[in-house]
Amino acid sequence: MISRSRPSTGPGSPWDGEFARYFGERAHSLRSTAFLLCGDWHQAEDLTQAALLKLYLAWPRLSRHDALDAYARKVVLRTFLAEHRRSRWKRERLTDTPPELPAAPAASGRDELVRQALAVLAPKQRAVLVLRYFEDLSVEETAKALGCSTGTVKSQASRGLATLRNRLGPHYGALSFSAPTERR
């Protein structure tokens, strides 16, 4: 995917316009994917920005612009998984003043139910379910995006769906899994 033939330059490079067009067309979709992974719009925005920065830095070296969507999605996934691994080691700092909490987004009851159910899954299971059922990727495409085998995708999807069934109980059958709508 990455070719070393084109040199990297700073701002004002000839491909800035090309990246800006891609950013405008795909940022919302990547942000929605990030939201499904982390369950918080602010964190999703941070994940998307970090992933797009990595994509921008690699842009001059990308040899196949026809596969950008899959590559960008993989960068978002890897950024999410790396952040999750790092956050396990971060400790909360106690202060004498509570943090200001943002107002809860106006989501439908069903969207909130799905978001809460996804939040209890392990990050890898959540990533598999988001790619398979929200991004509508095949088992093979999901395995490629996550850098694992198709068997791992199948087992993680099976375990994740079983957890969702247990967590959601009778509500599970009534849910249709679709991409989230962003709050404005």
Automatic annotation (TrEMBL):
Residues 112-164 form the RNA polymerase sigma factor 70 region 4 type domain. The keyword rRNA-binding does not apply. Keywords: DNA-binding, Sigma factor, Transcription, Transcription regulation. It comes from the Bacteria. The keyword Transcription regulation applies. One of its GO terms (biological process) is DNA-templated transcription initiation. SUPFAM superfamilies: Sigma2 domain of RNA polymerase sigma factors, Sigma3 and sigma4 domains of RNA polymerase sigma factors. It holds the Pfam family Sigma70_r2. GO terms for molecular function: DNA binding; sigma factor activity. Belongs to the sigma-70 factor family. ECF subfamily. This is ECF subfamily RNA polymerase sigma-24 subunit. It comes from Amycolatopsis rifamycinica.
